[in-house]
Amino acid sequence: MNSPRPATAAPGARTSPQLRLGLRQNAAQFTLLVVVNALVGGMLGQERTVVPLLGEREFGLRAYTAGLTFIVAFGLSKAVANYVAGTLSDRYGRKPVLVAGWLVAVPVPLLLIWAPSWAWVVAANILLGVSQGLTWSTTVVMKIDLVGAQRRGLAMGLNEAAGYAAVAATAMVTGLLAQTYGLRPAPFLLGLAFAALGLALSSVAVRETREHARLEAKGHVARADGRHDHLHEELTSGQVFAQTSFREPALSSASQAGLVNNLNDGLAWGLFPVLFAATGMSVARIGVLAALYPAVWGLGQLVTGALSDRWGRKWLIVAGMLVQAVALGLVAAGDTFGAWAVAAALLGAGTAMVYPTLLASIGDVAHPAWRARSVGVYRLWRDGGFAVGALLSGVLADLYGVRTAIWAVAALTAASGLVVAVRMYETLRGPSHDQSQRVAAANTVR
Questions:
Q1: How confident is the model over 250-282, as pLDDT tens digits?
Q2: Residue 200 above 90 pLDDT?
Q3: 27-218+238-433 sits in which CATH class?
Q4: Which residues cross the membrane (predicted)?
Q5: Second label for 207, Cα 20 to 30 Å away, from 192, 275, 414, 419?
Q6: Which residues are CB-contacts of 415 (< 8 A; sequence separation ≥ 6)?
Q7: For residues 365 and 59, what is the distance between their CA atoms, to the nearest angstrom?
């Protein structure tokens, strides 16, 4: 088979005499990107315990809706940044977008430390959302680029596990720091260190991966069942948005499930610490509960991502959404540390079943030529769930109480799982999947 002509490298990319697809073949860069995404998660984790309590205790916010404005700001800005990240990374390359995301992250902990009013906290979260959208989206796309189709679920499991394990660890550590030294500035000094290290690694050590996606595109093989025949390489950004959001059954099912998943995460982020604090629980113990959910979520993805490569995507997603619904019901019904710990662990397990699997399903369906844009659209909907969740749960909590708001979100999560069960098809390929891998492996750029 003739070797394909290498495409022009992205600006700032390092060229390599040989490109190959696969986790083992790209182990060094993949591992580096896992570390970078852990730092991205740490930037988010610095807020999970402290900021909801900061609004209540230092800025006197009593209405739940007002207290959740920082999550609305974060969710909206991250959603838009996800979409922009996908488009820009297809046009200019992945690495410049990643570095830009870290540059935006640097002021965030400083604004949180110096904030004289809640408006500063909201502004910090707008920047945090932009940074998270650019950095996390790009690390997702870069890992998909490197591994090809064969171990996509495992790759997403490793990526999300690193990010959310860091969220959990940072949430716990900041809770302890806040208990010992106060809500500011100590907890946010961690974020400052994470931003500096993430910027340095991304600028110096990370390599461009867009050529790997082009290599995979050259060996792309259609599904044996005829699905996706109407989805060809030349799609405009508007067509990618329409297919991912509404038209293509698997892509649109994943988008709505992602939105609802982060809707309930926005609820957990904004209202769980307030619910726990209402019982007189210490900040340190609240930090443990705030960390337990993303810890199980993060570490569980090491298993669930790989399982989705063996068992398939659809029913793992359905089961995960239903498990999350049950866990939210247990939070609403509980009133002790032990009961909430069990519920938090169960919520993390359900989320672990869903999170990497949804991303893998997007990678299964989207053509490599427009996959980054499709990931960006999916993450636009998914992280828009933060804003929807904060607004919905805040309004319901103000009108009917925190527990009623949690019950309502539990019902919505269960309904989302049923939508996936009815509308989504299995995206993991059969025999043509292995054929595609052989073709891509043969098309090595020398």
A1: 999 999 999 999 998 888 877 888 899 888 888
A2: yes
A3: mainly alpha
A4: 27-44, 64-85, 97-114, 120-141, 161-182, 188-206, 266-284, 315-333, 339-359, 406-425
A5: 192
A6: none
A7: 46
